[in-house]
Write a structure and sequence with these properties.
The chain has helices at 9-24, 34-41, 45-51, 55-78, 84-101, 103-112, 118-144, 153-169, 186-195; strands at residues 173-175, 178-180. The protein folds into two domains: 8-52, Orthogonal Bundle (Arc Repressor Mutant, subunit A), CATH 1.10.10.60; 54-195, Tetracycline Repressor, domain 2, CATH 1.10.357. Strands 1-2 form a two-stranded antiparallel ribbon. The longest helix has 27 residues, at 118-144. It contains nine helices and two strands; from the N terminus they run ααααααααββα. 69% of the residues lie in helices and 3% in strands.
Length: 199
C-alpha cells in the first residue's frame, strides 16, 4: 500500500483519542457512540476501526493516555530539584488539578466499564506500574537524602497513588439518599500521609 502524503498514523490515532477524551469527559460511556468520536475527530467511522478494535479498546487506550500524562506530571515534578517532601506535595496538587479536569471520565471508568479483557488489563497494569515507578523515584531521592523514612519506596508510591483516587471521589458522598460535598484537599491528604493519624 502506497503511503499517502502527509499521513501520520500516530497523529491520527492521537486525534481520535483526544476526541474520545473530550466526549467521555462530559457524557456517560454508554452515551458515547463511535460515530460521535469519529465525527468530533474529523475522521470516518471506519478510520477509527483502523486504530481500535471497539469502544472498549478506545476507552482503555484513553485511560492509558491519561496515565501517561500523569507520569509526565510526576517526571516534571521530579526534575524541579525541590526537596522530596515538597515534590510530593506539589505532585499531589498537580494530580488533584488533573483529576478535576477529567473527574467525570475517571468516575465513569469505575462505574460503567466492565473489567477489561486480560490483554487490556495487562496494558493498564503495566502503565500503572510505570506511574508508581515515577513516584518512587521522588521517594527514593528523599530516602537517600534522609528527608523521608526508609520504607519501601514502591510501597509508599502505591499508597501515595491510592490517595489520588480519594481526590476523584471527594465531591460526592451519599448519606441517606442525599448527595453531599466532601472537602478532601490535597493538603489534608498530604498531612495524613506525612504525619499519620496517631495522636
Amino acid at each position: 500500500m502506497a503511503k499517502i502524503k502527509g499521513w501520520n498514523p500516530e497523529i491520527k490515532r492521537q486525534k481520535i483519542l483526544d476526541s474520545a477524551i473530550q466526549i467521555l469527559n462530559r457524557k456517560e460511556y454508554h452515551q458515547c457512540p463511535i460515530d460521535e468520536i469519529a465525527k468530533n475527530a474529523g475522521v470516518a467511522k471506519g478510520t477509527v476501526y483502523l486504530y481500535f478494535r471497539n469502544k472498549e479498546d478506545i476507552y482503555f487506550s484513553v485511560l492509558i493516555n491519561l496515565i501517561d500524562k500523569v507520569i509526565d506530571i510526576a517526571e516534571n515534578v521530579q526534575r524541579n530539584g525541590l526537596p522530596a517532601k515538597k515534590q510530593l506535595f506539589l505532585l499531589l496538587q498537580r494530580i488533584s488539578n488533573f483529576i478535576d479536569t477529567y473527574r467525570h471520565l475517571f468516575l465513569s471508568i469505575q462505574q460503567e466499564v466492565k473489567p477489561p479483557k486480560e490483554k487490556l488489563r495487562d496494558r493498564v497494569h503495566k502503565k500503572i506500574g510505570e506511574l508508581i515507578k515515577a513516584i518512587s523515584v521522588i521517594i527514593e531521592s528523599g530516602i537517600k537524602k534522609k528527608e523521608l523514612k526508609s520504607y519501601s519506596s514502591v510501597a509508599l508510591a502505591t499508597i501515595f497513588l491510592s490517595l489520588t483516587s480519594v481526590i476523584a471521589h471527594q465531591k460526592i458522598e451519599i448519606r441517606k439518599h442525599k448527595i453531599q460535598q466532601i472537602d478532601i484537599s490535597p493538603e489534608l491528604l498530604f498531612k495524613i500521609l506525612m504525619e499519620g493519624i496517631e495522636k
